[in-house]
């Protein structure tokens, strides 16, 4: 990929994170968390987006972000109270900002009028002219897009760390600069000492452009300091040896000057002082937040309180500069003998580079890794697990005793493999938060379009699921939330008439349950209108007019292809696609969806998904001639049934009595067609299992072979979907074993859920 | 740009971080000879290439050879001026 493009992509990724932060922060503020940390986080998010956008010359984005930022700044400074009205506007502004980011990324068009309206609304709150003609934010950030010609690029360039924005704390700035702003002619001469580090260039920034930026602010006199320049032969081509002192006479304030260095603050030594005066600010390179906080405190706190601790002045006097001074001295001594093999300056010159490397490590708490690499690793670990199982089998076959060294070693290997696998899977696991976060906006929009009032409550955002699952969850969830609001909730007047609050509640929750993640979307609306659903199904020819269906079956009609209850196709939910698409995408993930509805009280859609699509703990059993794997999470206990405990019920069906209760007994071999005869109860083993909905059943199998971790190989991808089978795996002896889909099996037996339950009814009817 | 030492080195259009290592290598290969740097095509000059050029002038001076910049493009001059290096690389321009 074009490196420039790669950087831009990173920027957009970061934007997504910032947008999520922003929305979350705003919602938190709306929820009453008005502490400065939350407000600052929100401010930083917008600020970072603006900064990055400026670097890429995305003017629309910058302009909007600027107005937004200004308003947030007022909130941050306590000049504007975060009232409900303001927050509503801000939330919508966050949506527009998201649109702008996406438009910049994907090249779409943004509703200009909407932007305008929000700019005006934000401007009205901040009391500023929002037209953005004058200071539109581009002024400070007018980097040439070219300035980001990247080489070996480090996504860190945009890492929006807390430190980055913090020195811009307006409170500090105001205290420090109030006198300067009041200066009579408005022009001040500043002396700017700027020494870029190698990382500045490595992060695709350029000293020349920063200096040009200063040149735009007023009159400049630039003095180059090349005293640390090593001889050509010793030069690290990508090192940084030059420093500049710029004498700038300008009307702009310190903030504006610092703004020019905003994105490189961690990558340079920067000192800005007023000519003839004390240093207004000493921005020390060094990401140590404590130092920065101290420096900030020094800048903003009233002098008397800060006089005691001696270390602080040292921070104002940047240590790296001292090193630089030493280097200069050393070099001055060596200067006359600029022999090609001059060894002395080299270590000295290497010094800043080492320091940078250390800084980089300190700031990098996370890394971005190409997903392909992780997937490759997961595949390999999967192979390792299979291989380890095979090895174990060989060892067993060779007849070595349990206590032999090889067997013990193998056990250890198994533990290790297990740990590696867990760790690798953890890399892919992500909290569902990333998907849930997108929903509040959706809810707002759908609510606005339908004229309904909605409160979206999310729970269990911390539940972690495999990334693939998360990615593919977004569309179904979006659809379900839309449905819940559009079809589920009633209009406010109807709600009030029904004795409910005018505001509908849609609840989105996630929870881990028996090794799967269960996501519920519930609304407190009117519930499924069963007569109407049935009428529509009949009208569309989906069921026979005289079909007799249970409530549950009627509810399930909405999952049929082509079913849509909205009589007119609305923009929101009915686009000819409906719950059938949701159902299919969930099934493709190895999940299931079910609906429960109570008239007048609302509906609940429940999704149950595997946590990972890669491994599973299973019990290996034989049924007929086949070896099957039963997911361990579903098994409650195993038992050896006595013939007397099994009772025939109806046609070919059996129940088994377990401690006084009866559960259906399913002969797996028979149900899946692997054998023609049922296993005799006394000869087989029954596995008492519990499905998602809590339904219990006993699975009758021939024998239990053992328990092991298996690597899931998709059957659909390699073959096709088979009823009652979730996936396949490779066993230690190299054979393929099928993994049972317990719920499908149980439901299939109940006649409720086979691949197309109602279609079958329709066929009969 | 090869190991053979020509008297003229045409500077690349874009003198940014990517160009530095090549530039160093090219210059080192030309040590000990009088050299003219053709800056007519330069569209952009970055800090890191500047430091290479500055170090080169020092090296040439030390070798007793002459290094001159020929036909500096506007962009090249602007770069030098921005970074306060005009006088060092093109002394005649600074006067």
Describe, in plain words, how this protein is organized in 3D.
Chain A folds into five domains: 1-142, HPT domain (Four Helix Bundle (Hemerythrin (Met), subunit A)), CATH 1.20.120.160; 161-368, no CATH class; 371-416, no CATH class; 432-610, Histidine kinase-like ATPase, C-terminal domain (Heat Shock Protein 90); 615-759, CheA-289, Domain 4 (OB fold (Dihydrolipoamide Acetyltransferase, E2P)). In chain A, α1 packs antiparallel against α4 (84-106), α3 packs antiparallel against α4 (84-106) and α3 (59-76) runs parallel beside α5. The two termini of chain A are 58 Å apart. Chain A is an alpha+beta fold. Chain A is flat. Chain A contains 29 helices and 23 strands. In chain A, the strands form five sheets. In chain A, strands 15-19-20-18-17-16 form a six-stranded mixed β-sheet. Chain A has a five-stranded antiparallel β-sheet with strand order 2-3-1-4-5. By secondary structure, chain B is of the alpha/beta class. Chain B has one domain (8-84): Transcription Regulator spoIIAA (2-Layer Sandwich). Helix content of chain B is 49%, strand content 16%. Chain B has helices at 17-29, 47-63, 74-82, 86-89, 91-94; strands at 8-10, 14-15, 35-38, 44-45, 67-70. Chain B has a three-stranded parallel β-sheet. The longest helix of chain B is centred in the middle third of the chain and has 17 residues, at 47-63.
């Amino acid at each position: 990929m074009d490196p420039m493009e790669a950087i831009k992509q990173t920027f957009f990724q970061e934007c997504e994170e910032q947008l999520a932060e922003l929305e979350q922060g705003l919602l938190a503020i709306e929820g009453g968390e008005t502490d400065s940390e939350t407000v600052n986080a929100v401010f930083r998010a917008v600020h970072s987006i603006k900064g990055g956008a400026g670097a890429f010359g995305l003017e629309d984005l910058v302009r909007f972000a600027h107005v937004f930022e200004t308003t947030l700044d007022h909130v941050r400074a306590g000049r504007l109270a975060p009232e409900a009205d303001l927050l509503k506007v801000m939330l919508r502004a966050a949506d527009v900002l998201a649109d702008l980011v996406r438009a910049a990324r994907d090249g779409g068009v943004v509703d200009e009028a909407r932007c305008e309206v929000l700019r005006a609304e934000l401007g009205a709150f901040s009391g500023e002219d929002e037209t953005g003609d004058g200071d539109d934010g581009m002024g400070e950030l007018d980097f040439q897009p070219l300035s980001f010609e990247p080489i070996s690029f480090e996504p860190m360039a945009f890492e929006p760390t807390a430190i980055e924005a913090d020195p811009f704390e307006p409170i500090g700035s105001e205290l420090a600069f109030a006198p300067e702003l009041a200066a009579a002619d408005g022009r001040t001469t500043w002396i700017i000492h700027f020494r870029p580090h190698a990382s500045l260039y490595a992060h695709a920034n350029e000293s020349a452009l920063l200096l040009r930026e200063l040149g735009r602010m007023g009159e400049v006199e630039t003095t180059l300091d090349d005293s640390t320049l090593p001889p050509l032969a010793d030069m690290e081509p990508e090192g940084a040896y030059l420093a500049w002192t710029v004498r700038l006479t300008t009307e702009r304030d310190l903030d504006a000057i610092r703004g020019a260095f905003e994105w490189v603050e961690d990558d340079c030594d920067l000192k800005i002082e007023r000519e003839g005066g004390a240093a207004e600010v000493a921005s020390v390179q060094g990401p140590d937040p404590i130092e920065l906080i101290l420096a900030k405190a020094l800048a903003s706190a009233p002098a008397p309180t800060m006089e005691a601790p001696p270390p602080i002045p040292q921070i104002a006097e940047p240590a790296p500069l001292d090193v630089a001074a030493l280097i200069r001295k050393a070099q001055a001594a060596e200067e006359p003998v600029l022999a090609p093999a001059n060894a002395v300056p080299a270590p000295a010159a290497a010094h800043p580079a080492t320091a940078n490397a250390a800084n980089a490590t300190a700031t990098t708490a996370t890394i971005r890794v190409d997903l392909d690499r992780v997937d490759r690793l997961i595949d390999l670990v999967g192979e390792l697990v299979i291989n380890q199982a095979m090895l174990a089998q060989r060892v067993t076959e060779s007849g070595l005793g349990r206590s032999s060294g090889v067997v013990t070693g193998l056990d250890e290997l198994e533990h290790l493999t297990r740990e590696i696998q867990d760790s690798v899977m953890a890399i892919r696991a992500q909290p569902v938060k990333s998907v849930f976060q997108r929903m509040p906006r959706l809810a707002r929009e759908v609510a606005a379009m339908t004229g309904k009032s909605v409160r979206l409550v999310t729970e269990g955002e911390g539940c972690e699921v495999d990334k693939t699952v998360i990615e593919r969850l977004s569309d179904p969830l979006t659809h379900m939330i839309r449905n819940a609001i559009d079809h589920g909730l009633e209009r406010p007047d109807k709600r009030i008439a029904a004795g409910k609050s005018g505001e509908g509640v849609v609840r989105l929750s996630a929870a881990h349950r028996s090794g799967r993640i269960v996501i519920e979307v519930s609304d407190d609306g009117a519930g499924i209108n069963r007569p109407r659903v049935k009428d529509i199904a009949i009208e569309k020819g989906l069921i026979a007019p005289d079909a007799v269906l249970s409530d549950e079956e009627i509810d399930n009609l909405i999952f049929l292809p082509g079913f849509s209850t909205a009589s007119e196709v609305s923009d929101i939910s009915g686009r000819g696609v409906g719950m059938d698409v949701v159902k299919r995408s969930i099934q493709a993930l190895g999940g299931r969806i079910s609906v429960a509805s109570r008239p007048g009280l609302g509906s609940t859609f429940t999704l149950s998904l595997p946590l990972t699509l890669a491994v599973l703990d299973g019990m290996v059993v034989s049924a007929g001639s086949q070896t099957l794997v039963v997911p361990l999470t579903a098994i409650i206990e195993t038992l050896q049934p006595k013939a007397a405990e099994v009772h025939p019920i109806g046609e070919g069906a059996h129940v088994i009595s377990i401690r006084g209760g009866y559960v259906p007994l399913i002969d797996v071999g028979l149900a899946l067609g692997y054998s023609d005869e049922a296993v005799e109860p006394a000869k087989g083993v029954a596995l008492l299992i519990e499905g998602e909905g809590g339904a219990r059943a006993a699975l009758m199998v021939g024998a239990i072979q053992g328990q092991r971790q298996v690597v899931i190989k998709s059957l659909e991808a390699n073959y096709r979907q088979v009823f009652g089978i979730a996936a396949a795996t490779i066993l230690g002896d190299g054979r393929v074993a099928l993994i049972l889909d317990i719920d499908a099996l149980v439901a299939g037996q109940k006649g409720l859920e086979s691949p197309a339950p109602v279609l079958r009814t329709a066929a009969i009817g | 740009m090869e190991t053979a030492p020509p008297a003229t080195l045409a500077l690349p259009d874009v003198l940014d971080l990517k160009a530095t290592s090549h530039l160093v290598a090219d210059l080192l290969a030309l040590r000990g000879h009088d050299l003219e740097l053709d800056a007519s095509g330069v569209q952009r000059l970055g800090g890191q290439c500047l430091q290479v050029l500055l170090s080169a002038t020092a090296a040439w001076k030390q070798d007793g050879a002459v290094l001159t910049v020929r036909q500096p493009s506007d962009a090249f001059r602007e770069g030098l001026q921005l970074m306060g290096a005009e006088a060092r690389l093109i002394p005649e321009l600074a006067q």
